[in-house]
Design goal:
10 helices
Length: 223
């Protein structure tokens, strides 16, 4: 059987490049002057979030320490908030939007409790609902849709095709541009869980998120 080509590191790199493309457009490209360029870059950027959600689920399943994983998410959610607010609104603190690390953190905690109540459907529904409500009222990036996508990927982790179908429905249900996030599905289906020869430092992704947002804001202020 031919080995699937997309390793964990490969998906992370694709997700980061996609995210960078999206944020360059959002922060630096005037939509009124470069409309086509802006929307093409934003469409490319839609690939990132489903890949990060998928990698979060994989990390939850295979991590050696979920406690350490949660600590990393909390730490970088806090670190990323100021760069995120600066890039999105130009303000140091903006309570109307919280960065995507908070969404991933809520999703991780939801998975933890879903595992605890594996045989209790009612409690599982309540857990996912509580996670969605928390994300909604915290104004996290991707809001309750993000938590639902993480929950779906976790619950259907052993049936990837079905998981992709439900995730695709959630992506399309958001809005016209988010529908392009379904372009991530072929990459996820080509995922190979076996270790690759290419390894990213553990904190590379976490640091990349706030650092690139801060750099983009600085560039915006200079041009």
């Amino acid at each position: 059987m031919k080995q699937k080509p997309c390793s964990r590191s490969f998906l992370k790199i694709i997700a980061m490049l996609s995210m960078l493309c999206d944020h360059i457009a959002f922060v630096l490209v005037p939509v009124d002057k470069f409309t086509n360029c802006y929307y093409i870059m934003r469409i490319i950027g839609r690939i990132a979030f489903p890949l990060f959600c998928f990698m979060l689920v994989e990390g939850f399943i295979y991590t050696h320490s979920r406690k350490d994983y949660i600590i990393r998410l909390v730490l970088f959610a806090v670190i990323s908030e100021v760069p995120f607010d600066l890039a999105c609104s130009g303000r140091i603190v903006d309570w109307n939007d919280q960065n995507v690390m908070w969404t991933l953190l809520i999703g991780f905690i939801v998975m933890y409790w879903l595992e605890k109540y594996e045989n209790n459907a009612l409690k599982r529904v309540l857990i996912v609902s509580m996670g969605c409500i928390l994300a909604y009222f915290m104004y996290t990036d991707y809001s309750f849709f993000g938590v639902l996508i993480i929950a779906v990927l976790y619950l259907y982790r052993t049936d990837r095709i079905k998981g992709m179908v439900f995730m695709g429905i959630l992506l399309v249900a958001q809005n016209a541009i988010e529908a392009f996030a379904v372009l991530s599905i072929p990459l996820i289906l080509l995922y190979n869980p076996e270790k690759s020869s290419t390894h990213l430092p553990k904190y590379f992704f976490y640091a990349f998120y706030p650092v690139h947002l801060f750099i983009l804001h600085i560039i915006y202020c200079l041009i």
